[in-house]
Structure formats: C-alpha cells, structure tokens
Write a structure and sequence with these properties.
Length: 392
C-alpha cells in the first residue's frame, strides 16, 4: 500500500475505537444509551438553515470564495466578539475563517512551527491535538490538569528546559473533557507567563457558548495583552448545533492569523460562500436559540447529577460545556469501568485515559441524550450494584 511515513505514523484515533465497541454492542442487540459522543443531538436552528437555502439559491455563491472568506463574515465575527466579550477584533487582519476548528488546531503546528519545535498540551485534553503534532513532526510536553488545581495547568511546575524550548501552548476552556472553566485572572496569568517565556498561545474555545447557572464562559481575548501573544478558536458546531457544517474561525494575533491564512491559501479556497452567509445569520441574528440550548443542557446536567448522587456516585456538577467528568469507582480503571457499563448496562461513556495519562480514573459523560434517557442510564448503572448510597 502506498502511504507516506507521515500518515503511517499518525496516532490511532481514540474515538474510532470507541465507535467500534458501540457498533459491536448494537450488533449484539443491546439497547444503547450513547453518552460517550461529542456530536450535538439537536438540529441546527431553522433561521440558519433558511439563510443557507436563500444563499445557495443565489448564483453569486456558486463560485469560489475569496481566499480569506467573504468580508461580511469576517465583519460578523468582529461584531460578535464586540457584542459578546467587549473585545475589538480587526476583521481584515485579526480573523481567519476555518473549515471547523479541528482543522485550525491541526494547522497551527504546520503554519507556525518547525520540526522538533516544542508544543505544550493539556493532559487530559482533546485527543486530536496530537494529530497536528504528528503531521508537523514536532515534539510535545503535557501539562497535567489536576482536580486540586481546578483542572488548570500549573505553569510553575514546568521545568526551565521546557519553558525555554516551548514555542506554542494549547489551552481549552470550557475544557474538554473536564468541563472546567477559566477566569480572566487565570488568562492574565497565562499572558504574563507567555510573554516572559516567548510562548504563543492557542485557546480552543469550542464550548464557549455553553455556560450554566447564569455564568457565561470568558474569552481568552478578554485578558489584557492576549492579542500580543495568542489567538482564540471558536466553532459554530456546539453553540449553534452546526457540527456537520464545518465552520469556525480564529481571532487574535495578526501574525498568527497571517500564518494560518497563508497555509490555507495553499490548501483551500475558504468555505462554500452559502455556508458563510448562514454563519453570519447564526452570529448576528437573535440568540434565543443559544439560550434555549444552554437551558436544555443545564436541565440534562441537573438530572444526571441528581441521579448519580442518588445512587451513591459522588460527582461534581459541570459549570459549562455539554460534558460531565465523573470519577471511576475504586478498583476499576477507566477503560474497565467503561467496558462494564457498555457490556452490562448498554451505557456508553468515554474512558478518561483516552484523553491522556491524567485522564485515568475518570469517564466523560455527554449531555447528549434526553433527560429521560439520562435518568434511565443511571438506573441501569444502579442495577450493577457498583455504588451504594453510603459511598456518597
């Protein structure tokens, strides 16, 4: 088989192995409640679909997009950041249009780093960060995200050698998989650390639109000096249920944005213009759909946490995202516990070790089923006899 070493050496995809286990269980006739996925289960809001339909009917959208995306979309992104975060973004020099934030996350090492340069990654973290590491043939070190630190990296724990070699750092809040949220003071600490050590920051804000208990997740761009050393990536996948549409953007440091755009000029000619016009509608029109979606997830969260505590599973309620990061009971590894839930209860969760060494001891549960199915999932787990009320 003709295959480059670059492709041959790519890491196996964690979620593909999970899907195979789920498919096998379905084939065996199990009624599966899938709480292990990260794919939104609700449809795209109707006004966004109508915007796509109307744009697609216009012949002007059938040709190539401008290389850097249509100006109206870049302007909508700038207006979105001003409205939501009171952050000024130059639509001409501080915006890059992305075919989904996953593409952007993989592109940054290719656009900004040379072979053997060092990338700092959170652990646990989104597994696909490693795809960029592999394709760019760079080195990486992980930063442990521990419960005692609120699942924030401890910059002081990094060695002098790592701080000297590191060129780029990835952060992700609200965090996948831990659901932890960041604060502006933490981001300001990050900016100071990055400037001191000449490290560029990429903040992955995929779940920025989903915050609970009346608290809105903050943007890295709200920290003073953030644009001097970093960018933020925002996707419409989660906030607007547009995962399959593959539309996202990066904002911030103009040199980093220029590098991304320069790479993309050789890989893409931006996105289908009609999708960009639909994205404009998502960002600029009534945001009631976002409030409704957040309320839906918060209701599901409340059911999950209440039911888990009822059966003796001592868990913390997530403050944002549509994930809960739940501890595995004593005597089990993450994978063993997840396998038991799948095979004996028909409940799918994502084992924490798939997100990194420091994910061991946890499972990630998605709020991506109805309240009734989430409650049913916990009742099935209760019947396994693993937990008792006295453990809570």
């Amino acid at each position: 088989m003709l295959m480059s070493n670059r492709v041959r050496n790519m890491p196996p995809h964690f979620f593909s192995s999970l899907v195979k286990k789920v498919d096998s269980a379905k084939a065996a006739g199990l009624d599966i409640i899938n709480l292990g996925r990260g794919n939104p289960d609700q449809p795209t809001p109707p006004h966004i679909i109508r915007a796509l339909q109307q744009a697609a009917e216009c012949p002007d959208t059938h040709g190539y997009s401008p290389f850097d995306g249509i100006p109206e979309f870049r302007k909508a992104i700038s207006d979105f950041y001003k409205r939501e975060y009171d952050v000024d973004v130059d639509p001409n020099t501080e915006v890059a249009i992305l075919g989904g934030s996953k593409i952007g996350l993989v592109e940054v090492p290719l656009a900004m780093m040379n072979e053997s340069d060092l990338l700092l990654l959170p652990d646990p973290g989104y597994p696909d960060y490693l795809s960029g590491v592999s394709l760019a043939n760079i080195a990486y070190e992980t930063m442990p995200l521990l419960k005692e630190n609120g699942f924030m990296p401890d910059f002081g724990a990094l060695s002098d050698d790592v701080k000297q070699k590191a060129k780029v750092m990835y952060l992700n809040y609200p965090n996948n998989p831990t659901s932890a949220v960041a604060t502006v003071p933490f981001f300001e600490e990050t900016v100071s650390f990055a400037k001191e050590n000449e490290i560029f920051i990429l903040h992955d804000m995929a779940y920025g639109g989903i915050g609970f208990d009346g608290e809105k997740p903050v943007s890295f761009m709200q920290a003073e000096g953030a644009k001097e050393i970093g960018i933020e990536m925002y996707t419409l996948s989660k906030t607007y249920n547009m995962a399959g549409w593959r539309v996202a953007f990066a904002v911030g440091n103009r040199d980093m944005i220029k590098a991304i755009n320069q790479l993309q000029h050789h890989l893409f000619i931006s996105l289908f213009p009609a999708v960009q016009y639909a994205a404009i509608a998502a960002l600029t029109e009534d945001q009631g759909c976002v409030r409704d979606l957040t309320a839906l997830y918060e209701g599901r969260r409340d059911v999950l946490i209440t039911e888990c505590k009822r059966i003796g599973w001592d868990v913390d309620a997530p403050k944002a995202s549509f994930f809960a990061w739940l501890p595995v009971p004593p005597g089990y590894t993450s994978e063993a516990f997840a396998d038991i839930l799948l095979q004996q209860a028909g409940v799918v969760v994502a084992p924490g070790h798939g997100f990194g060494k420091h994910g061991e001891g946890y499972v990630r549960v998605g709020l991506l089923a109805s309240e009734e199915r989430i409650a049913e999932a916990v009742r099935r787990i209760e019947k396994l006899g693993i937990f008792s009320v006295s453990e809570a």
